[in-house]
Amino acid sequence: MSILIVGSVAFDTIETPFARKERVIGGSCTYSAIAASLFSDVGIVAVVGEDFKDEHFNILANKNVDTKGVQKQKGKSFFWEGRYHIDMNTRDTIKTELNVFENFDPDIPENYKQKSFLFLANIDPVLQLKVLNSMKDLKFVLCDTMNLWIDIKKQELIEVFKKVDCVVLNDSEIRQFSGVPNLLLGAREIRKLGPDYVIIKKGEHGATLIGPEGLYFSIPSYPVENVIDPTGAGDSFAGAFIGFLAKQNNINEDILKKAIVYGNAVASYTVEGFSIDRLCEITINDVNNRIEQIKKYIEF
Ligand code: AMP
Is the CB of 81 under 6 A from ligand 1? Predict the structure, then answer.
């Protein structure tokens, strides 16, 4: 089954306590699409500027990501700069330049509207709603967001959450959105709005799935010893998660739990290199090997 992902395609400047890289390729759509392409066909809808050259399109094309829905506009691509703290788990945004992203109006190509798996990566919830309303035959919708939209467009975000199957948020976003300090209770509050499932991302501490009938599934992250750049871990988690679901073309508790494990494994590779470098190197065999390791680590 094939997937549509709508989100940002960007250039990022990333600073960790150990290194700095200027204007590397990034964006929520980029990471999630490459991760999803390990499992299924992916088409993306995004906007880039004139600085996004053929060499950049080729990176996506080499991963079989269909870029027909990427609009190229006059001006510069979205730019984000982040600086990681010593724990490599928390970061500050130093700069966000929206550039062509400011007037992004996702236009879904006709042949994308039939896709049954949709990942609404982090963009304005008004645009997420527009995309949702364009789709004709959805089977499963996953949705991400960020603190900015919870701050300034909470009502619109609630409208989105009402219409999706699963939301994926990090721990601080769960608390910020729900106003509840306890993560489990906060996730349950969000479920009351509509989504059957809530995934809580906890960075290096793993991920938890909350669902109907008391469903609770939690898994630690693979212990990466040399984290180079955590950027895109959440997006590649989400991309692998929906990629795995689309490959099974079926949704049940067992498949959702496995999808979380696959998301975890892929994200653990992403952080081993800058930008998408490591993510682009791996194959499904690497992912399966890592899952065997994870199994050993949690067996008792
Ligand atoms: P993650 O580390 O999974 O949260 O994803 C980081 C990616 O999100 C980076 O590559 C950024 O380019 C992208 N990003 C940062 N801020 C925004 C924003 N306001 N809207 C969309 N994408 C963003």
Answer: no
